[in-house]
Design brief:
This protein is of the alpha+beta class and 143 residues long. The protein contains two helices and eight strands; from the N terminus they run E-H-E-E-E-E-E-E-E-H. The chain has a six-stranded antiparallel β-barrel with strand order 3-4-5-8-7-6.
């Protein structure tokens, strides 16, 4: 059975406690990374549920339920129950609009790493200056 873009596969079937444990571990392992090497400040979106549409040119689009990790002016990190290869275009829905409204942003997968079980961490880069400006403004003004 083929999947249409209107169907959502909630493929990170793990508890909120496990999401918190995984994110805590990832954050602790990055505490030693020098933030001066980063292009922009990262802001947490820890564990919030959202949707990403994978727009792989070799396959039909597929919507995946994800757990957000963090975002910055330049990109986003999230947990997924599937691998998404670097270079694959994405449409990510982020709760960054007024009153947490979902805003769709285009991005390209830059990194995919296995975490545990079926969980992968995906890093994606936003694809336009307008996205960088809008998301960057939210990143600078959110707590």
């Amino acid at each position: 059975m083929s999947t249409t873009p209107d169907e959502i596969l909630f493929d990170v079937q793990i508890s909120k406690e496990d999401v918190k444990r995984i994110l805590d571990r990832l954050d602790a392992s990055e505490s030693n990374v020098t933030t001066s090497k980063r292009r922009s400040l990262r802001r947490p979106l820890r564990g919030l549920s959202s949707v990403v549409c994978v727009v792989d040119p070799d396959n039909p689009p597929i919507n995946l339920g994800i757990r957000l990790r963090n975002f910055s002016r330049h990109g986003i990190a999230f947990l997924s129950g599937r691998q998404i290869a670097p270079g694959i275009p994405l449409k990510v829905k982020l709760p960054i609009g007024p009153n947490g409204k979902l805003v769709e942003k285009e991005a390209v997968t830059r990194r995919c790493r296995w975490i545990e079980g079926s969980v992968h961490e995906i890093g994606a880069e936003f694809t336009s200056w307008e996205v960088e400006k809008e998301v960057g403004h939210h990143a600078e003004t959110s707590p």
